[in-house]
Q: What sequence folds into this?
């Protein structure tokens, strides 16, 4: 499986299915994606191979630890993220995979800032704040 930016200069080759797919409704993810939520598929590092240059943007997450976004310096597409919560893993932007049959989110977080018309019916866990909140 392959995740890629719009122009194709930044790609991530993925081996197998993700460990988890998470929909996040926090304001930062809304701003990061330009949409009303972000969806990330989490893989262990050894099952993801990055090819191409990425620009890194880091911001503090709710825990105070860094949330790092990596995007293509040519077209600006976010392709992957790294978080302190998953130090040996990578979160892949599901939209960068571009597969309508990709597994749906199993967790929906930060629902306290979710838009009222959004529903993530596939999620087994619904959290008003982060995963633990």
A:
């Amino acid at each position: 499986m392959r995740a890629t930016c719009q122009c194709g200069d930044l790609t991530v080759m993925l081996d197998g299915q993700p460990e988890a797919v998470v929909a996040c409704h926090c304001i930062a993810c809304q701003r990061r994606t330009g949409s009303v939520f972000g969806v990330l598929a989490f893989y262990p590092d050894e099952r993801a191979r990055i090819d191409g240059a990425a620009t890194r943007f880091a911001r503090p997450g709710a825990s105070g630890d860094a949330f790092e976004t990596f995007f293509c310096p040519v077209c600006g597409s976010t392709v992957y993220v790294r978080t302190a919560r998953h130090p040996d893993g990578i979160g892949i932007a599901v939209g960068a995979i571009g597969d309508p049959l990709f597994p749906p989110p199993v967790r929906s977080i930060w629902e306290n800032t979710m838009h009222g018309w959004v529903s993530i019916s596939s999620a087994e866990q619904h959290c008003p704040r982060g995963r633990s909140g």
About this structure: Residues 27-33 form the longest helix (7 residues). DSSP finds two helices and eleven strands in the chain.
